[in-house]
Amino acid sequence: MIGVLVLSMSLSAFNDYIRLEKRFSPHTLNAYQKDLERFAAYCESHYQLTNLAQVEYPIIREWIVHLSSTGLKSQSINRKCSALKSYFRFLQKIGEIDQSPMQFHRQLKTTPKLVVPLTEKEFRAVIEMYDHSHFEGARDALILELLYTTGMRRAELLSLTLDAINRNNQQLQVVGKRNKTRIIPLLPKVISQMDGYLAHRNQIEKAKGSKWLFVNRKGKELNPSHIYKCVTTYLAKVSTKEKVSPHVLRHTFATHLLNRGADINSIKEILGHKSLSSTQIYAKVQLPKMKQDYLTAHPRA
Q1: Is 282 a catalytic residue?
Q2: How does pLDDT run across 240-268, given as a tens digit for each residue?
């Protein structure tokens, strides 16, 4: 019982650290907490260890083998290992351990997943489906339009407030990962569409006191599942792609800009990527098309 209490206290302190100092997103906080709790349960059931400060790397290696044997993908295992690395680095920082058992750990090799973007024709078909004459239709159409024209993440969209809109400069202030803010330009047609939605929103009495841009009829902030359902329901009607999600629209945004000659560094800033390598994945999406164009158009082909 004492061991469980110690673990609970250290996890609580760690959560405060990555939330307040490292400024991890709520999604990452939740994922890390679950990963650490499950790892702690594994240590207790297999090795009778209740204090993670006593864990050595062979135990972690056995845990990784165990996860792999359950069919868990390498990408998911790597994320769990990232939680461990951050946790042990924290224990080292506060003097609980001298060295992290993860210091020499190497990530499992993974196959990069290329998300197939929508075509411009497919997205136009989605937008034409919405009925802007009522609140829900105008709201959901704006959700898709913003995801596509700004490339923002689902969590960033949900965190938008009315104060984030700057009509004079035609731009939007977005709060990204680790509470970093960035400015994204808005197209005039998107601002017009936003005004149409806000006109509907202002007619809902319960929504008037809310600071959030996107709300339901009760004036409450939308939850992530609504955004996911909104996107998947409509994209599935125009696309036969196996995967359709809010993140697909982020890929679509970047790919369409690259196709039309946008500078990759500008796309990096709009997307809020820390490094250019994260943005370059979208250039790889174009590779099959570029190869086909090359084989079709080159005089020596």
Answers
A1: yes
A2: 777 788 888 998 898 888 888 888 888 88
